[in-house]
Design a protein that fits this description.
The complex is a heterotrimer of chains A (about 250), B (about 290) and C (about 325). Chain A is of the alpha/beta class and about 250 residues long. In chain A, about 40% of the residues lie in helices and about 25% in strands. Chain A folds into 2 domains: about 160 residues, Rossmann fold (3-Layer(aba) Sandwich), CATH 3.40.50.300; about 80 residues, Rossmann fold, CATH 3.40.50.300. In chain C, strand 2 and strand 3 form a beta hairpin. The chains are: A alpha/beta (about 250), B mainly alpha (about 290), C mainly alpha (about 325).
Chain lengths: ~250, ~290, ~325
Amino acid sequence: MLEVSGITQIFGGVTALNAVSFSIRKGDITGVIGPNGAGKTTLFNIITGIYTQTAGTVSLEGKDVTGLTPDKLARRAMVRTFQNIELFGAMTVLENVMVGMHTKSSSGLLACALKMPWSIAEERRIRAGALKWLEFTGILDLAEQTAGSLPFGKGRLLEIARALAVEPRIILMDEPAAGLNSQETLGLATLITRIRDLDITVVLVEHDMELVMDICDRIVVLNLGTKLAEGTPREIQESPEVIAAYLGDDD
Amino acid sequence: MQFDQLLQYTLSGLSTGAIYALIGIGFSIIYNATGIINFAQGEFVMLGGLLTLSSLELLKLPLWAAIPCSVAFSTLVGILFERLAIRPLKQPTPINLVIITIGGSILIRGLAMLVWGKDTHAIPPFSGDTPIAVGGATILPQHLWILAITVVIIIINKIYFYHTISGKAMRACAYNRRAAGLVGIDVRRMVLFSFIISSAMGAVAGIIVAPLTMTAYDVGVMLGLKGFCAAIIGGMSSGISTVIGGLILGVLESLGAGLISSGYKDAIAFIILLLILFIRPQGLFGKADSERV
Amino acid sequence: MKRDLFLFIGFAFLILLAPQLFSGGYLMNVLVFVGINTMLSIALNLLLGYAGQISLGHAGFFGLGAYLSGILSTSYGVDPWLAMPLAATVVGLMAFFIGFPILKLKGHYLAMATLGLGIIIYIVFNETVELTGGPSGLSGIPNLKIAGITFDSDVKNYYLIWTATLMVMLFSLNLAGSRVGRALRAVHDSEVAAQVLGVNSRILKVQIFALSAIISSLAGSLYAHTMTFISPASFGFNFSIELLTMVVIGGLGSIYGSFLGAALLTLLPEFLRGANDYDIIIYGGLLMAMVMYMPGGLVRGIPALFRRLVTTKKGEAGHA
């Protein structure tokens, strides 16, 4: 599904990532873990086209997508969420998700401004689609609220609903459990498995070990910018390098 | 003949360029300490000139006393501006800051019009107006004053930024405001300092140029914009790059006005501004930096 | 949805009724300006309030529309009805191409670059004397004519300008509520998140910049054909700032707000006749006060103020 090979990122002389390679299988939930500063978020930013890497390639469903901008990647059905949820704060919850339908609609500027019949029909379809995703994530009752006023946990769900509206085949989540209480984290775990059941490949960077071990099919461990290990949760838990570098100094 | 003309344009360009440089450094100091482009910068230039005029005519002060008096008052306006307009701002987004400094600029200009009227005023040159021959060209004593004062101010600036505690703290703010705050630098105080320094520098620029160009309530707009242009050429540095930027701009403008058309003189600065922003937003001498784009 | 339509119809009805209520010829003339300024502030608001991109050079696009249309119809005998779309096309294309490099810039830098662009255009109006008449202006621009009616009186011009303004308003309201409008607001709130969802923010910003320039150009052409005389002084830096003030005072991201801002700033000088030149003090003060105390503009600030008054009244009543 997603193949990352030889990704190297150097920031002003500091090597943040050093020749990281791994591949993600279709339909899996893959966790990317590692101590702080391991380069997880940098890696995500490279895969999703926000940074341009110093070296290495990314391919999606067998096609090279290295250097494509985030909007082009969205059109190839890859979408992501952010660690500090990036909502459109001044817009309503429903409108946020409607923006997610952008690639699934096509009325141009003039058609929209002149309210052509096809753009009205499309608008109706966008609204219905957005409502469906709000229902899926369980925040339908908040549809008319301003996104900026949502509590953090609900904001997280909104961000996921918005990403799903793109109808991705792969979704990358950057620390989806950060800032959630244990109740919300449980809900998130269920939601992630339900997303996988929609045939969407899930990749997550996460600090919450329990969540990762529970729901992930495979895990990639990064440490100091290099890949330390890769395998099933059980293999990772038993890997001596991982224990030494990461689980060992767990505080 | 042709060479004399070139020399003449270049010389007068250098002295206008020095003025642009001073204003540009004022822009850069505030920008580096706060991330704000102060659209009201030019108004301090205007205040410098007009306050000197009032000190001379109303207070009957001699020139050597009128100048510091005017600089002090302009600086006071700078402090008030920071305190009353910038500091209380609840949502300091770039657009809000642009709008508030534009608002401040219009307000100060309007008040100046109320006080000094719409006429242009002349300030006597610092030491007569007997032209001095340089090669085949002539310059006025005021040109020399401008160049000399600019050099002195740049040296003082350098000493302040590199050899005093508050100057070093200010550089730290420019480098990374959050980190500076974490190591105990009072960032808000530095913001105020930056407004003090740049309003004072703007005022000085306005004072030394006034005997050459006359002054009026609305001279700040163009001078401010040209100063900004100098700062952009210099990559928003508060040092020598902006000085060179100002000099380049001054000379090009003077040559353009002399050799091409005086009507398009003001357009030259803005064409350079656009070209630099499009092609080298980090300035002529700077290294690539994604801040501006 | 229905409510928005009724609001617009009600608004349009009041606007078209206004000449029956105010008979004074002079007031009609001022209201014509309110219409033109409404168009211009809507144009700037689409860019600033929706897409979050500032422009301090919009007077330049306004002026280009006025001069292109004016020169084509005066010196080359082109019919004004043809000259207007021609001017708009040229200005739109120009904005489109300059939009790519200029909109790469952000915040303060974009402000300065657009300001520079505006001033360059202004200088060109002054210097190309053979074409524009230079600082003394271009006169004898023909009025618009349709079906034997010549738009040469204030009342006729009122209907002409306000028909165009209402069309621009409806167009912009539709746009704002559509997928394009949402994408614009999304870019404003978080450009990176909008991109991740598939919005090509770069193209979108350039498109809206061009649209905004086209509306400004049309407003300029209409201005030229109703006034029959134009001079560079109307299209300088100060007017760009005045437009910015209208948008900010009315309310960023609100089409009706743009009308409020334009109406207030156009009518204000008429009420402050005695203060003639000192109105810039009021502009400056208003601009600062709005950003500090009413960042949502009048369109949001007044209802909020009203609500607060009502609740404190109720609170006091409860205590008593």
